Amino acid sequence: MTEYVLTAVRFDQILDRDDQGRPIKVIKHRRGDVISDLDKREAQRLLKAGAITEAVEVAEPAAEDDGDGDDQNGTPPAVVTEAPTASGQTAADQPRKPRVTATAEKWLAYAKSIGLADEAVAGKDKDELIALVEAAEQK
User: Please, what's the b/e burial string for 87-117 (b: 16 or more CB within 10 A of its CB; e: otherwise)?
Assistant: First the structure.
């Protein structure tokens, strides 16, 4: 079964409904959660929307590897599941978007961190920076 990592902030997975169609069994997922029990249609819908990405397994390098696949304690190496975003960064590496009430300096730093050119953000006030960031994120 394919595993996915949730890139959206939240996803409520409905597992069962009552006679009137109201959800009675729901799993609440948060950003970064690994989801493995999606049906094919739901997975395609969420992939298309950009709410999930396929999980990529990355093995951590061992401190001292003697070639048998175990570390010094006799346990196999850990496997980390990460989902790269569209920019190629994992969710943990991406800067966090500031709140609307944050200072213009924080918005300026965030705009530069997501790749907006210095010329595009120079001399802009906070409202203009927010508009530029939102336009860039829509692309």
Answer: eeebeeeeeebbeeeeeeebbbebbeeeebe
Instruction: Give the pairing type, strands 10-17 and 52-54.
Output: unpaired
Instruction: Please state whether the predicted TM-score (pTM) of the whole model is above 0.70.
Output: no
What is the C-alpha separation between 17 and 15, in angstroms, rounded?
7
DSSP letters spanning 65-123 = --SSS--TTSPPPPEEEE-B-TTS-BTTTSPPPPPTTS-HHHHHHHHHHTT--HHHHTT
Domain ranges of the chain: 1-91, 95-139
pLDDT tens string, the chain, 139 residues long: the values are: 688 899 989 999 888 899 998 999 998 999 888 888 888 898 889 989 888 988 876 555 555 555 555 555 555 555 555 555 555 555 556 678 888 888 888 888 888 888 888 888 888 898 999 998 888 888 7
